[in-house]
Design a protein that fits this description.
This protein is of the alpha/beta class and about 140 residues long. It has two helices and six strands, in the order ββββαβαβ.
Length: about 140
């Protein structure tokens, strides 16, 4: 077993004597959470002076902190740039968000389509942060 930098044990995988990328234990998730318009007011990079005083969404704070305490990995994945890292970290800490790290510079504009060799699930935020529920939906997949 190896560990992530967040100190979570990863399950080692091997096929035909060759190591594969490890994966998280069953039930543990890597959450990638947007910031603007998802956990706080929607603020564009062109108005960074508003970032320090943004209103946070209490339901997002409560839910994300609960997931963190349950052992999930919480990363903020934001279109904010490296120039905004310091003000963003300070704001997150002042508001009480628990998280493992931040990935800056997410492409802007939405309509994301993530392709990966690991399981990927996407959930669109629509104004209320709660625990996730299962629903059947139509998705796009590669042709066999």
């Amino acid at each position: 077993m190896s560990k992530t930098k967040e100190n979570v044990e990863l399950e080692e995988l091997e096929v035909d004597g060759k190591k594969l990328s490890p994966q998280l234990p069953k039930g543990i998730k890597n959450y990638l959470i947007d910031i603007d318009g998802t956990v706080c007011d929607d603020i564009p990079n062109e108005e960074p002076e508003r970032m320090a005083t943004a209103n946070h969404y209490p339901d997002a704070l409560e839910t994300l902190n609960r997931w963190y305490e349950q052992g999930h990995i919480i990363y903020f994945f934001t279109s904010r740039t490296e120039e905004h890292r310091e003000v963003t970290e300070k704001w997150l800490n002042e508001k009480g968000f628990k998280y493992h790290g931040m990935l800056m510079g997410k492409p802007r504009g939405g309509n994301y389509h993530w392709i990966d060799n690991h399981l990927v699930k996407a959930t669109r935020y629509k104004g209320k942060f709660t625990d996730l529920v299962e629903r059947e939906v139509k998705i796009q997949v590669f042709e066999k």
